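An instance follows:
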Amino acid sequence: MMEFSRLMLLCLAGLALLQLASAEGKLKIGVKKRVDNCSVRTKKGDLVHMHYTGTLEDGTEFDSSIPRGDPLTFTLGMGQVIKGWDQGLLNMCEGEKRKLIIPPELGYGERGAGEKIPPNSVLIFEVELVKIERKTEL
C-alpha cells in the first residue's frame, strides 16, 4: 500500500511539472542521478555525447538513442540542437542523468517536427551525459 501511495505521489508531481512547463513556457530540469566527485561540468563549446529518450506529454516516445547504442554527439550551446537542450544540459557531469521538460518555445514550436512531434508540443527528455570533450585553448 505504501508503494502505491508513493507511485501516485510521483505521478501527481510529474503531472504538476508538465502543467507548469506548458503554462509558464519555462524549461524544467530535474536531476535523476547525481555524480560524486565531479571535476568537469559541461559548458558552451564542449563536444558532448548524450544518450536520450524523448516523449510527448501523453507518454508517446518519438525518439531514443538507446536502441541504436550510439549516443548523440554535438557541440553544446551552438544551436545544433533545440534550445531546451542547449540550456538544459549546461553544468552537467559525466554520468549524470536529468529529466528535461521543454516548452514548445524551446523545442520545435509552432512548426513541430515531422509526423512524430505535433506543433506546440511540450517535450520530455530523459538524458544521460556519457562523455565531455573539451577543446583546449592555445
Summary: The domain at 30-133 is CATH 3.10.50.40 (Chitinase A; domain 3).
